[in-house]
Amino acid sequence: MVLEACNVSFAYGPEKWPIRNLSFQLPAPRRVCMLGRNGAGKSTLMMLINGTLRPQEGEIRVLGKPIDYSRAGLKALRRTVGIVLQDPDDQLFGATVEQDVAFGPLNNGMAQSAARTLVHETLDRLGISHLADRPIHELSLGEKKRVALAGILILRPSVILLDEPTAGLDFAGVTAMLNLLDELYAAGTTLLVSTHDTDLACEWADDGWILLNGKLGAQGPIEDVVQDDVLPEAHLRVPAVVEFGRAIREAHPELRGRPLPKNRDDMLTLIQEIHAGSKTFRSNASPPLRGPDTTAKEGKPSIEAKSLT
Q1: At a CB cut-off of 8 Å and minimum separation 6, what does 79 contact?
Q2: Distance of CA 268 to the CA centre of its chain
Q3: Claim to verify: residue 195 and residue 65 sit in the same structural domain
Q4: Which of 148, 248, 263, 292 sits most deeply, having the most CB atoms within 10 A of its CB?
Q5: Partners of 31 in the β-ladder
Q6: DSSP class of residue 77?
Q7: Closest alpha carbon to 109 in 59, 75, 156
Q8: How many domains does the chain have?
Q9: Is residue 145 domain-shared with residue 251, that is, in the same domain?
Q10: Residues with Cβ < 8 Å from 128, sequence gap 6 or more?
Q11: Which residues, in sequence order, are CB contacts of 231 under 8 Å at separation 6+?
Q12: In this predicted structure, what is the pLDDT of residue 293?
């Protein structure tokens, strides 16, 4: 397992335990969406996994070993587990993009020439090499999120934690971010994404976690998690494709053994198949009954042609 937690608890105060007796096992590589309402503890759990916070109870293991909270241990941990914060301004502090992304390798003792080469390779991989000399304050939100990810990716971590990575992005920005994450996943990176967007989770993730009352109220394959009865209690909505899929199965009992659609493409395919099936049915059916023929027969005028006098 790349990540494990055993009965982890963390409190900000005597009456505030956002994480309580939480356990999980995460193999690699996986795409996991951690779902929960605002304030459910998603960011807290990420900071516990990253070693920024230390649990009062239980332990977290990375690559089979408990986290070492010494300075050297945390430095090594962050080469394995990187975190991208929801607000990139909380993470970016260099004057320019190149300076910011170079901080990690330089801090780990890499020579400046080697660090510069690695920075440009990383920026090129993310499609933002043209931003190298740009001041951080001139970047758009989407660009800042990519630069923050570059600052983590340059350390070649096995796991990347992303706190609401699509928040504030338009459709093009969301698409670009998810495509980038898919490339990292295909290269063997485990991705843990926190969000309250069940539609995004349903379409993108392999697995889902629902954080509820300080622990995982549900976990497993995303197609099961987004149908779990715990969703309303966690203040989460059922994904639209799942709701529409259920309605279609109710209207077409012959489809009730079929898996629910997971994304737009699945939904469109299902609708097209139903439409094709209904056309086949109509073409094989008997001709519809017709009413009396009111057209003219044997030289007799039609109803419309009769004199009204």
Answers
A1: 108, 155, 156, 157
A2: 21
A3: yes
A4: 148
A5: 191
A6: H
A7: 75
A8: 2
A9: no
A10: 97, 143, 146, 147, 150
A11: 198, 210, 237, 238
A12: 52
**Given the structure tokens 């020439």, which residue do they identify?**
113
Give me the CATH number covering residue 9: 3.40.50.300
Tell me, yes or no, whether 58 and 10 share the same domain.
yes
261 and 206, same structural domain? Answer: no
In a domain, 302, yes or no: no
For residues 100 and 106, what is the distance between their CA atoms, to the nearest angstrom?
10
Sequence-distant (≥ 6) Cβ neighbours of residue 243 within 8 angstroms: none
Indicate whether 141 and 271 sit together in one domain.
Answer: no
> 93 is in which domain, residue-wise?
3-238
Asked whether residue 127 falls in the same domain as residue 208, the answer is: yes
- Written as six digits, the tokens of 67 are 């986290």
CB of 71 closer than 8 Å to CB of 107: no
- Tell me, what amino acid is at 86? Q
Q: Are residues 180 and 273 in the same domain?
A: no
| Token pair listed for 267 | 């939904």
Residue 301: inside a domain, yes or no? no
Directed axis angle between helix 141-153 and helix 171-186, to 10°?
10
Residues of the chain with pLDDT below 50 are: 280-286, 288-289, 291, 294-309
Q: At what angle do helices 240-251 and 264-284 cross, to 10 degrees?
A: 20
Q: Assess if residue 303 is contained within a domain.
A: no
Same domain, 159 and 64: yes
CA angle 128–156–147, rounded 5-degree value = 25
User: What is the per-residue pLDDT for 278?
Assistant: 61
**Residue 19, strand partner residues:** 10
26 assigned to some structural domain: yes
Of the candidates 165, 143, 173, 214, the one whose C-alpha atom is nearest the C-alpha of residue 31 is 165
Amino acid identity, residue 236? Answer: L
Distances (CA, A) of 256 to 8, 13, 76, 276, 278: 40, 49, 51, 18, 17
CB 34 within 8 A of CB 192: yes
| Rounded CA separation 227/183 (Å) | 28
Phi/psi for 268 (5° steps) reads -65, -40
* E strand intervals along 128-226: 159-163, 190-195, 207-212, 215-221
